[in-house]
Fold:
Amino acid sequence: AWSAHVAVAPSGDAVASWMEVGSNGWQTWANTYVVGTGWGAAKRISMTTLDVSSDQNVPEVVVGASGDAIVVWVEASNIWANHYFLGRCWIRAELIETDDAGWAAIPSLALDAFGNAVATWTQSDGMFSNVWVNHYN
Structure:
């Protein structure tokens, strides 16, 4: 395992996310901690093998006041996200960056008190590195 990040809600619920080598290469994993219940089972949340050429491609995780969480990471030179609903499940990973002009890297994530998230990353257009953004309401 490599590059673990943890985010904690005001209630004490938490989500940890990390990269791990599996039989198909690097993948993004996560685990949840619920106060009074403890840690759940670790779950692979990425779709395919990840790009792990540097520390720029590590997963980022945020947890909201409700305990819901979002994780973003680089997969196949694109930015992906997965959303966790407290006490229920992870949804299917989704591509949040769709410009295939060049590689994407260095994802960052912020979440407000209402559960709205903003993800940013650096993306090459073939000549320059630009900052891109996507949001989740």
Observations:
- DSSP finds no helices and 13 strands in the chain.
- The two ends are 31 Å apart (CA to CA).
- The first strand starts at residue 2 and ends at 8.
- The CA atoms of residues 104 and 123 lie 4 Å apart.
